[in-house]
Amino acid sequence: MPAQHPIPCILMRGGTSKGPYFKMQDIPQDPEIRARVLLAAMGSPDIRQIDGLGGADTLTSKVAMVGPSSREGVDVDYLFAQVSVDKAIVDTSPSCGNMLSGVGPFAIETGMVPVGGEKTSVVIYDINTQSRIEAVVETPDGAVNYEGDARIDGVPGTAAEIRLNFMDIVGSKTGALLPTGKPMEKIEGIDVTLIDVAVPMMIVRAADVGKAGYESAAELDADRAFFTRMEAMRMEAGRRMGLGDVTGKVVPKMAMLAAPREGGNVAARYFVPHKTHAAFAVTGGLCVSSCVLVPGTVADGLAERPEGDDCTVIIEHPTGLIDVAMTSKPYGNEVEIISGGVVRTARKLMQGNIFVPAATLLPASPAA
């Protein structure tokens, strides 16, 4: 076996994240071998990720694996992996809505999905969350278009719009909108909302945890005592949500809310979970927007709840705004969350082979 093993990939920016996109057939199916391969590809564990494609940040240490789907009404399956920068950990329990932005273009670029006209609809099955998402990709002249006027905060310049319509988003990991049946409860004396829409989350009011809610990501990341406190609460949240011991896992995610002050419906900071997101995750945006719409949550009296069954929730984050289109149906004092959609962009950066040490593909040696 040669010392280096080539794996075809396309390096893409998806939303406010970046990473290699692989065909599933080119990545080992065994979870242990797959983890070794992805760690080698990204250059982890190493805070610089100098020996791989990773960008020394959680937002640029992400991987998408895509393959044709055998599911009825679905075009491709998508498996996301969060590769730790400084630890030998590959986590496939969460999804990533930003990396999802590049799945439709990747599927078209690699011939998995044929062009369908000026715009091509790609129905994606998210293996991580067991949900379906429709990606509407601009394909004039029979190819993916990356140039356009759509702008998303956290990304310089403009690009072609990619519309993501999320279906089956309620209860992504726990099977319920409110896994404990309560819109609000206390953990360590702090009011929290434990909610699961696209991703399980623990959401708090910024003021209740000693923050203004308008801090920059760097300001929050510098307060390690704050993260220690939040992590203890997150451990308990995971247990209550039926996720078990979430030590070393990235779900449930966390967010804190404050009153809007830039024309949005709510100000929020999103944690991934041991670092502050520089902008805002798509899945987190869906979950926080649902928290705004559901009565009795920590968002009550803080967020400006939009009216109507089809509405847009605008979330203020460290680098701007994210608009989340929500469809819901009120039932007395309760709300049913039906679907959510966001506009994202993506760009193909490089296409070729990533080389990993051939030894990473060998089966693990049996224990002595």
Strand content: 35-45%
Provide the helix percentage.
10-25%
Shape: globular
Radius of gyration: 20 Å
| CATH topological fold name of the largest domain | Diaminopimelate Epimerase, Chain A, domain 1
Query: In CATH, what is the class of the largest domain?
Result: Alpha Beta
CATH architecture of the largest domain: Roll
Q: Quickly count the domains.
A: 2
Overall average residue pLDDT = 95
CATH level-four homologous superfamily name of the largest domain: Diaminopimelate Epimerase, Chain A, domain 1
pLDDT below 50 for ≥5 consecutive residues: which ranges? none
Helix tally equals 6
| Content-based structural category | alpha+beta
Largest sheet data: 17 strands, mixed
Number of strands: 17
Organism: Shinella granuli
GO molecular function, one term: isomerase activity
Pfam family, one: PrpF
Protein name: 4-oxalomesaconate tautomerase
Description of the molecule:
The chain has six helices and 17 strands. With 368 residues, the protein is an alpha+beta fold. It has two domains: 181 residues, Roll (Diaminopimelate Epimerase, Chain A, domain 1), CATH 3.10.310.10; 147 residues, Diaminopimelate Epimerase, Chain A, domain 1. The protein has a 17-stranded mixed beta sheet that branches. The protein is globular and about 60 Å long. The mean pLDDT is 95. It comes from Shinella granuli. This is 4-oxalomesaconate tautomerase.
